[in-house]
Amino acid sequence: MRSIKTRLITWIVLVLLLTLGITGFVSYESTLGSEERDYTAQKAGLQQRLALSLPHGVWQLDDEFIRLTLDAELKSPIVVAMRVEGDAGLYLGRQRNADGALVYLSRGEQPSGDEVLSLPIIYQQRDNLGTVKVYLSRDRITQRLEHELLRQGMQALLIVVVLSLILILLLRSYVFAPINQLQRALLRAAAPDGQNTPQLPEARFSEFSELIHGVNAIIHTISAELGRRRQAEATALEQKELAEQAYQQLLATQDTLIKTEKLASLGSLVAGVAHEINTPVGITLTAASHLAMTTHQIGSQFSSGQIRKSDLQDYLKDAEESSSLILSNAERAANLIQSFKQVAVDQTSEARREFELGDYLHEIITSLRPKLRRSHIEVQIDCPPELCMDSYPGALSQVVTNLVMNALTHAYDENQQGIISIQASLAAQDAVQLVISDGGKGIAAENMSRIFEPFFTTRRGSGGSGLGLHIVFNIVFKRLGGQINVDSAVGKGTRFTLLLPLCAPENKHEEQA
């Protein structure tokens, strides 16, 4: 007889191995592509740097400058050797030996390398002073790929072993142990009297064969009616337990989905701000590298006593431009980081604090700028100055983010221009009215009564979870102690009106999502 446990574990292990194999292959291809792109980028950067730095040293026949330039480039893991050959018998070669030390490369010596770049040395874009040969190695890519294969193999083995052990323990605890207990109980309750009674057919799988033997033993002493009643009671009890378990699982799943939806906005915020900061940081790094290179050049000229007034003037001009670029882009990155830091801290914190509503609304929209930039939607904020609240900024950020992203997703078609308006005003001495509206498609009348229900969405096939407005409803009522209303008509847009106390109530600390 075939064992259910063996068959089940075998199939699950096969599926896991297949899945892990596919994901491992995808990860391997991704790593290979990433390493190739990095290798190409390093090679392109090497060519650009050599085109900028070498011509001056070769033109001046400055062996020390050439040597320093080659040694600087040999610090890259992809470069194993370089040689410069120029007019007037100029030759200089450098290589990195097995110990990592930089040594001279003779003319007849041929270093090992996977690829050789031969680049002309052009001075002031007109004079060809010679060539520089760069010997490149792909050992780093090979090592990274071997490490990735080893990691994927160890990960797959660990996952298969752990899941197999968990599966065996779960089957033993929740399936086979109860079956064995039932079999022993039936045998104890059975009182065979020797009468011939119909026997139940043998089970196909070995786990149920003993159960069938126990049932056959007790059939001799239990009447058909009592058996039917007990069977009915057992079935009803089992269905009740299954229904209770399904209900509890549904509640747990709903709670998990709501928490996942709340954290999704923070993950999107991190990705967007990282992309946004990449540009100013990259410009700052490039300008700093250029400034360092020109400083090194002017220093070499000064040390050799060959510096001219025009060289110094060019250096001062470059230094001024580079410093201006570094300062402006560093300030831009700092502003982005500050906005992201405050919003991210608030979204991951349950603390309350005092904050100015207008400034905080601008910080929230700044954090959403990467997504807004991909659309043609403009967000306008109208908030009186010095309107302060003592509330939960993280909860308010979640509400505003969900409402703005809801309008961005549902109100307008792709590439359609539109405006999302955020208006704040003092509704009373102790309350603020926050209105978030758009001029988009609007909401159908039959859906108005259901928009705050969990899992209700009109964009199920396009990634909508139906939890965004449900989370907004719960946060506004149970955390911020406010009210929310919606007005909408098809083709005339949607208007969400929030009435929030300036000082959030203390007794509503727990948010029931």
Automatic annotation (TrEMBL):
Catalytic activity: ATP + protein L-histidine = ADP + protein N-phospho-L-histidine
Gene3D superfamilies in UniProt: 1.10.287.130, Histidine kinase-like ATPase, C-terminal domain
Domain HAMP: 173-227
Residues covered by the Histidine kinase domain: 272-504
Ranges annotated as spanning the membrane: 156-177
InterPro entries: HAMP_dom, HATPase_C_sf, HATPase_dom, His_kinase_dom, HisK_dim/P_dom, Sig_transdc_His_kin-like_C
KW Phosphoprotein (keyword) present: yes
One MF annotation (Gene Ontology) recorded for this entry: kinase activity
SUPFAM superfamilies, sorted: ATPase domain of HSP90 chaperone/DNA topoisomerase II/histidine kinase (SSF55874)
Protein keywords: Kinase, Membrane, Phosphoprotein, Transferase, Transmembrane, Transmembrane helix
Primary location: membrane
Highest taxon, organism lineage: Bacteria
Keyword Kinase in annotation: yes
Subcellular location: Membrane
PROSITE patterns with a match to the protein in the record: HAMP, HIS_KIN
Name by which UniProt lists this protein: histidine kinase
Organism (species): Vogesella amnigena
